[in-house]
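Dear colleagues,

As part of the handover before I leave the project, I'm documenting each prediction I ran so the next person doesn't have to rerun anything. This entry is a single chain, and its sequence is reproduced below.
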Amino acid sequence: MQCQSRSRDRMIANFLWAVVAAGAICSGTPVFGQQHLVPDTTITGPVLEFGFPGLHIGIAAYPEGPTGTTVFYFPEPVKAAIDVRGGAPGIVNSETLRLQQDSAFTNAVTFAGGSSYGLSAATGVAEGLKERWIEEGDWKRIADVTGAIIFDLGSRRLNTVTPDQTLGRAALESARPGVFPLGAQGAGRFTMQGWAFGHPQHSGQGGAFRQVGQTKLAVFTVVNPSGGIVDREGFAVRCGPDAGGRCPQARELLRREMGNSLPGIPPASSQGTTRNTTITLLVTNEDMPALELKRLAIQVHTSMGRAIQPFHTKSDGDVLIAVTTGTVKTEAPYFYEWLGVLGAEVAWNAVLASVPSLPESGPTDPVQWTPEQLNAVVGEYRFSRWAPLRIRRVDDALQATGADVDNLYFPVGQPVALTPVSTSELLVEGERGYRLRLEREAGEIIALTLEPGPWGQRAVRVSGSE
């Protein structure tokens, strides 16, 4: 009866939260908390398809961030090792991986956005496994879940939505074998790269797979570095808006940015160097001692400095976890060294696969709006409690002033021009050409979205014309 009572109380609490959220939404009052958010587990982009028994992968996201998590679940526990670099790692339950034990005990690895807050996704996965195993009658089993996070907040995002236990559970429930979503999906939903090149660009999560004989090796990575992604010819994969075609070589971009002064990479804020991280999982089926698995992690992690330049800086918290399902045993001279060489090439492919396709740019030619159209947009919008956007009319033009906090989109304390390019879209003045898309209901503007597409951030209208 006590269990039924607790279950009933939980159902009532969830129902009341839904009523409060629905009432606020219907009344037009913005809801900025996370209680009303519903995980999205759909795959909406390219995928890597591969065959690897013993590995299930799931993703979940909160589009309201946007931010997400990626879960790697092993139905049978695996042996694991870890290699940590850089100055700002964010990991949980990782110490057991450092002990180089030859027993297999890891059940899942969780990658998430949200900085330290995103570590709770790993707790959600552990709770989900606990409930699953209890239902199966295996009440003595303890879930061992290691989690790692990337920083996708701060100046790049105008809200504080972060992965949580609910999102971790949802990703676990969606896990299936043979499919890994690429680009701006899962934990890679709002990653960026190229800060050291002077013009940060969107990145994502990438994966690659190789099989030689019976030996399988896969690498999955969430790319969020201070450095930039570099192809096999040394060219930056994405760079600034003035690239005019193919980007220059990475060394040229670094030379331009650094000059002779060696200014270094600025931290995200005065609170610490936590803006960037690349987190990676290597999975093989090759049975090997824990010491060799650790050496494999070190070798492959080091090699990724070719694909990301610079790498392992003070502003990065790079982590690579290597696991083996241990179903194949190869007896050959120097096999482990060659497995590291193979892993290095697969890791480079995984980094390159993380680069997402850019959405269509949309119209860019200015259009003339009537005074009524201009007035209809005027008002205050809010991305979150602390991130307003105020739009005002100045003669026959529109200006926007953003929050008094550091961000990539609106200069602090400085109004920027908004140029209409269609009946529902405005361009934000600046070299990057950010876009605002208006959202209407019954003919009235109720919200707008900054950068519509996979990285869209929605702002709710809270007041009308001045």
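The helical segments are 2-27, 95-98, 120-135, 165-173, 250-258, 290-303, 335-353, 371-377. The first helix runs from residue 2 to 27.

All the best with the project,
I.
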